[in-house]
């Protein structure tokens, strides 16, 4: 199943780094509303090097 915009054209896949953060989550929301397919990345909170 592919995402299509209102005019029927297929949108591209976008990768959002930090999708679990405040700004990243809003970017994901906006992209989805515009019909893009979205993949998100997030840090592992259990990993001590991310502190």
Can you tell me about this structure?
With 51 residues, this protein is of the alpha+beta class. Helices cover 24% and strands 20% of the residues. It contains 1 helix and 2 strands, in the order E-H-E. Strands 1-2 form a two-stranded parallel sheet. It is elongated. The model has no long low-confidence stretch (mean pLDDT 86).
How do you describe this structure in short?
With 51 residues, the protein is an alpha+beta fold. The protein has one helix spanning 22-33; strands at residues 13-17, 37-41.
**Rg calc:** 14 Å
Order of helices and strands: EHE
Share of β-strand residues: 15-25%
Beta-strand segment tally: 2
State the end-to-end CA separation. Answer: 38 Å
Largest sheet: 2 strands, parallel
Question: Going across the major beta sheet, what is the strand order?
Answer: 1-2
What count of helical segments does DSSP give? 1
Low-confidence stretches: none
Counting helices, strands and paired strands, the structural category is alpha+beta
Q: Give the overall shape, derived from the CA principal axes.
A: elongated
How much helix is in the residues?
10-25%
Chain-averaged pLDDT: 86
